[in-house]
Amino acid sequence: MQSSLYVSLSAQVAMEKRLNTIANNVANINTGGFRADEVKFEEILSLAAKESVSFASSGQNYVSRRTGPIVKTDNPLDVAIQGEAWFAFNGPGGPVYTRDGRFRMNENGDLLTLEGHPVLDAGGAPITLDPNAGAPTIGRDGTITQGANQVGSIGLFTLRADSKLARFGNSGVTSSIPGELVQDFNANGVQQGYSEGSNVNPVLEMTKMIAVQRNFESAATTIQESESTLMDAIRTLGPSS
């Protein structure tokens, strides 16, 4: 059995997935609230040969939870999260969580994401403002006031470390475990007039891309050498004409 051939092939499959992930991250460097994809690889042990052989798995993607850079915008409907919490909005199958706090208000006063999804309050209900009452003031706890009236409260939710996150659109995620409402605003809160950018580190991603490309080429060379060795063996051991 040409173990090196199959090991190198499994490595190429894994590196192709890694390269696609890096390319997607680089493409979203300027996407507000975007969370980078990372890939976790596992060793697969084969006992088919006389000696055990280790293969690389194809890899499993997961969403990075690193915080992105905070940028001042002075837009009253922009809010950035301080801490590890998430905003929530209505998705087709339930709540979707995001760190992108660039919100807008339509003519009816509905508070929406840039894509038009209703932003949810602490009770999981859509938020409606008064479109004629001027710019809102948003407190650290998400409370929204217009003039002297409290008109709503932006919900903040934490996602458990063991919850599995699946990507929704550019900057949203769905969670296998529902988010837990933030009630202590010492560690988590919002800051009005700011927005959070992508957590992709462009220099790191480009460095990873170069390393993966070189490793891919190295694996391709190993495959070619294994095929050449196999063909030489066939010619040497095969029946002579």
TrEMBL record:
Subcellular location: Bacterial flagellum basal body
Annotated Pfam families: Flg_bb_rod (PF00460), Flg_bbr_C (PF06429), LlgE_F_G_D1 (PF22692)
Domain Flagellar basal body rod protein N-terminal as annotated: residue spans: 5-35
Record InterPro entries: Flag_bb_rod_N (IPR001444), Flagellar_basal_body_rod_CS (IPR019776), Flagellar_FlgE/F/G (IPR020013), Flg_bb/hook_C_dom (IPR010930), FlgE/F/G-like (IPR037925), FlgF (IPR012836), LlgE_F_G-like_D1 (IPR053967)
Domain (Flagellar basal-body/hook protein C-terminal): residue spans on this chain: 191-235
Family: Belongs to the flagella basal body rod proteins family.
Entry-linked NCBIfam families: FlgEFG_subfam, flgF, PRK12642.1
Name of this chain's protein: Flagellar basal-body rod protein FlgF
Source species of the chain: Microvirga arsenatis
